[in-house]
Write a structure and sequence with these properties.
Blueprint lengths: L1 H17 L4 H10 L4 H14 L4 H12 L5 H10 L4 H9 L5 H16 L6 H10 L4 H12 L7
Helix pairs in contact: 1-3, 2-3, 4-6, 5-6, 7-9, 8-9
């Protein structure tokens, strides 16, 4: 059993060396590798005790890194899929400033508008922002700014 524990722990360390992971992700990978659930639980507890896995830190880092690519709804869906609890997600999202989502949406809108033909399309811009999980309120604000020419493209 001790040998199996060392194998599981070593495998978990290798996974964590590649990138930060949530407790759920790491547990799933260990079980997929064929380690027993009770052994997986022991390894996860040890790693959490040492501070190698922390869902709160993961969620904060994820939100910081992905905000430009996703809106708040999109980030919440991604984190839920990674096994982060709603409470932790709400804490991570609350750390953002009030204009963070709007500013990120403006940057994305510039990219979308520069990609297409030089004719403004409200539906195209709204669709692009919506697919990335931005709120309807932010989408309408950004579309209004783009329509009024308040977004500087160059």
């Amino acid at each position: 059993m001790d040998n199996e524990f060392e194998k599981a722990r070593s495998y978990a360390y290798r996974l964590l060396a590649l990138r930060q992971r949530t407790k759920k992700e790491l547990g799933l990978r260990l079980r997929q590798k064929g380690f027993a659930p009770e052994l997986t639980g022991q390894v996860l507890d040890l790693l959490a005790e040492y501070g190698y896995i922390d869902d709160r830190v993961f969620a904060s880092n994820w939100v910081e890194q992905r905000l430009g690519k996703r809106g708040l709804k999109g980030l919440k869906q991604e984190l839920l899929g990674k096994g982060i609890s709603s409470e932790i997600i709400n804490e991570a999202l609350a750390k953002l400033g009030t204009d963070a989502e709007y500013n990120a949406a403006l940057k994305l809108a510039k990219k979308v508008l520069l990609r297409g033909d030089k004719v403004f399309s409200n539906s195209r811009l709204a669709g692009a922002l919506s697919r990335r999980g931005y709120s309807n309120e932010v989408i309408s604000q950004v579309c209004r700014a783009a329509r009024d020419g308040l977004i500087a493209l160059f």
